[in-house]
Specification:
Blueprint lengths: L1 E5 L4 E5 L6 H14 L5 E5 L8 H9 L2 E5 L10 H13 L7 H17 L24
Parallel strand pairs: 3-4
Antiparallel strand pairs: 1-2
Helix pairs in contact: 1-2, 3-4
């Protein structure tokens, strides 16, 4: 599964493919571009190598898509990781799908159910001291 979380609407956009190479990722980016044609898109990505492929980077540069990479081993700040955990918990845990099609259908059913109840993602950790400009970051 390749997915993106729209923070403004709280909705998941996804595609299930047999493989997760740069070609599939680029195709997914093109579907996102079609969904939001006149906006600059910012996508937070982990350091999975297909995200950094030269053709992906070139297409992004030419199409107002900015890939923002998280530090290695720091996927936890990315809100979509919690959504992936929910997909595992609600669609896959305790199941024994006989086929990939059955598994894909379970994932799709959960995401459709989830998107019908989606709310914008905003105000995360409003009172956290790390959000204040005078927070003393420690750089190693």
């Amino acid at each position: 599964m390749i997915a993106a979380l729209d923070l403004a609407a709280g909705r998941l956009h996804y595609r299930i493919r047999d493989r997760k190479r740069w070609r599939e990722f680029l195709y997914f980016l093109k579907t996102l571009r079609r969904r939001w044609p006149n906006q600059r898109l910012y996508l937070i990505c982990d350091n999975f190598s297909p995200h950094k492929h030269p053709e992906v980077r070139a297409w992004c540069a030419a199409n107002q898509v900015e890939l923002v990479f998280l530090p290695t081993y720091a996927s936890w700040p990315n809100w979509i990781e919690a959504e992936f955990a929910a997909v595992r918990y609600f669609a896959l845990n305790g199941t024994d799908h006989r086929t990939h099609a059955g598994q894909d259908a379970a994932i799709g059913n959960y995401i459709r159910w989830r998107n019908q109840r989606a709310r914008p993602k905003s105000g995360f950790a409003i009172n956290s001291k790390i959000r204040h400009p005078d927070y003393p970051f420690k750089v190693a």
